[in-house]
């Protein structure tokens, strides 16, 4: 299978991108990848089993799928990306970084892992003075 060609200056056509999606993929995804981008959807009758450039999936890929992907193939997820895309895991990572590297990682607001840290969450916010919002006589002209 040919890899996607780099843009040519002499007007030659680029190789067509072939994408793979599961059966239950929403029609909007197929539309964007196929008609909107002009890519070709993988078809078992036309393409070989590894004859694709991009694979889209809403769920995770198995570690073996990351390992077996060829250089010219791309997946729409990165391994272990949940560490930064799930709020609870991101907080754990930030806390570990602060423990290792100190105050340089103290840039995020107070955060809590609920329900585990519910009591800590309630205690923090009951200690805070209520903020007054709206206009006061001293602010009016």
UniProtKB/TrEMBL annotation:
Transmembrane segments: none annotated. One of its GO terms (cellular component) is ciliary basal body. PROSITE patterns: TTL (PS51221). GO terms for biological process: microtubule cytoskeleton organization. GO terms for molecular function: ATP binding; tubulin binding; tubulin-glutamic acid ligase activity. It holds the Pfam family TTL. Keywords: ATP-binding, Ligase, Nucleotide-binding. InterPro entries: TTL/TTLL_fam. PANTHER family: TUBULIN POLYGLUTAMYLASE, TUBULIN POLYGLUTAMYLASE TTLL2-RELATED. This is Uncharacterized protein. It comes from Ectocarpus siliculosus.
């Amino acid at each position: 299978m040919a890899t996607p060609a780099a843009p040519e200056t002499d007007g030659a056509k680029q190789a067509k991108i072939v994408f793979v999606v599961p059966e239950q993929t929403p029609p909007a995804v197929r539309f964007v990848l196929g008609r909107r981008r002009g890519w070709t959807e993988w078809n078992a009758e036309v393409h070989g089993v590894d004859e694709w450039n991009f694979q889209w999936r809403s769920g995770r890929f198995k570690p073996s799928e990351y390992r077996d992907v060829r250089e010219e193939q791309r997946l729409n997820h990165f391994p272990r990306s949940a560490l930064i895309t799930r709020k609870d895991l991101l907080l754990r990572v930030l806390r570990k970084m602060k423990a290792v590297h100190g105050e340089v990682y103290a840039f995020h607001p107070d955060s809590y892992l609920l329900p585990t840290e519910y009591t800590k969450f309630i205690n923090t916010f009951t200690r805070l003075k209520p903020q007054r919002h709206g206009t006061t006589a001293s602010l009016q002209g």
